[in-house]
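Q: Can someone sanity-check these two? First one:
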Amino acid sequence: MANSGRITEASRAVERVMGSAMSKPRASAGSGGTRLSGITPNGNKIKFTPDQVQQLRLASWGGQTVGISFPSKPGDVEINENWASRVRNSDRRYIPDYNKGSNHRHAPTRSAPWHNPGNPNRLPFYLHGHGTAEGFTINVNTARPGRPPKYKKVYIDGGTHGQLVKVNEHFRRASAAEPTRPLVYLACEAGNPSGRLARDSARVVREAGHTGTAYAGTGKVYTIHDDLHSWVGVEQGEAKGTKISGEFRVV
């Protein structure tokens, strides 16, 4: 996905494709035990447990949990915390066919499919991460216990991502309180029809008992924010060599 950093009203919004990363280590919020596996950038298989994965709680300005993030690049932690704590226009609307660098404040928006006008106070649960239609990217701590975190970038499939989501303590609390809460994947191309990334992740989460409808973007997903507000835009995607609309779809 693409993220934007903090800006002033007089300056232009800084936008980064969803794939920016964290600037400082944060403790994992996952439950240990389950052995998972992924692939490192050099092609080696790696085994890890959920509590080794860098994870971040996304909170509103008032402190309410609105989602979680799996940072994997420098800057993600600060950017995502700022995006979540602003007045999130994405709770109700998003920017389809977004063009990176365009004026998001005046871009045409579309009603978000997860927004229910009959229940406007029901918030979606955002799942931020980086990746492509083929896989998610996470950070795995490979340091020995008691030593400072040493993160290694690891690529995982949708099913493994779902395993991480379902054991995350913040997600578990939110799901227990409202099991029908919509899930919104803020990850590039996670909802692209040429792949199964978000679909496989959502399947695992549903098997754990969460029944909320899941949505994911067909193209690159951008998170943008200024001092007061934040937005989400989806760039046009491509499937089997054909351009497709940049939008959120049910997965």
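And here is the second, same format, sequence then tokens:
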Amino acid sequence: MKKGLLLSVVASGFIFAGGDIAPVQPVVPAAAPAACDFWGSIGARYEFKDGDTSTTEFGDKANNTWKTSIVLGVEKDLGYGFGFGAELGAYSHLGLTDIAGQTQNRAELSQLYVTYKVGNTAVKAGRQALPKNLSPWAWSSRTLGVLDNAYNGVVVVNTDIANTTLVGAWIASLTPQNNTVKINGSDEGLFMLAAEYTGIANTTIDTSAYYIPSNGAQGKAYSVWASAETKVSNINLGLQAAYADADAGSIAQLGAGTDSSYAISAYAGTKFDAFDAKLTLTYMNDGDAKLNLDGGTSALWSDFSAGALGYEVVPGNKQEIAKLDLGYTLPSNYGKVYLSTIADKPDHGKTAYGAALGYKFKVAGVNSKVEYRYIKNKNFTSSKNQRIRIEGTYKF
């Protein structure tokens, strides 16, 4: 996937259309951008599911899903520091209802923005994706390349300070499933400040803070996040902390309760030849304020995955979570086999377990994956869920 450089300084993933690139410090100005840069992807996914009931077993057509996607994006340098970008995304089942009971067709203008750059400061205004690392409370995920949610607002990025990226943002609304939802039901929006520091060898420190003012009818809300990741010899280490609070009657996505939520997550990982391993531990209190603005999967490192049959941290119940990731990279570029396991011990209820065993590979330029996932959780809707997913995405 191409990422056109509308800016002569590569300031942050905030400025790029995809919104999923880690920030890069401006050591050397980039070469002059092309007049116009296009990118896109084509994807397909098929899933078999088992919900552990007599009507949701493997083989039932109603429990299978088939989805195809296409993404088309463009960035254009207009000169004098100005530029613009746009992205179209669409899902389709291609009429194949004979092999999948669930169908979905959707097309949207997922991004439309203008940019302006002067010195080491860049501004991006319009509908845009936000990256998880610097905006963990309000970030953009993708399904088969298509944005699940974007944000309407203005983002300012500055890199004047050495080894430091500073970000300020005002977000007016979010756009889940192509619907526009005002922050707190008003035009006051959400304010965010974030910073990333990379001045310590092999270390990245990220911080971000959010504030949603009260509009009179609905209460205020705020969140603070911080993380530090480093590498010592062959060991990768990370520490993450998150806090969120919302007044009763604040926006529905954050819950109507008044108890603040906080979580601490830490990981240690290593790689030896073709093998890699990572252990993540998380503690979360029993607060009911959600750790994601749109109510979906949080940016906590312990979250199993986004999407159906993923295992996500659920606010309102104190939890102790352990997640282990193992991987083996096959020789001669034949892909990677991986295993992820998770155990979640809530304060009230039974321990939940989950595992995912998969194989990632690339053939003819297509990034492909085959995965089996198992979740056993008697504290929620059903005691067991299974899923087999086959998918591929071609980026251009």
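A (reply): Looked at the second one. The CA atoms of residues 372 and 388 lie 5 Å apart. The chain has a mean pLDDT of 81.
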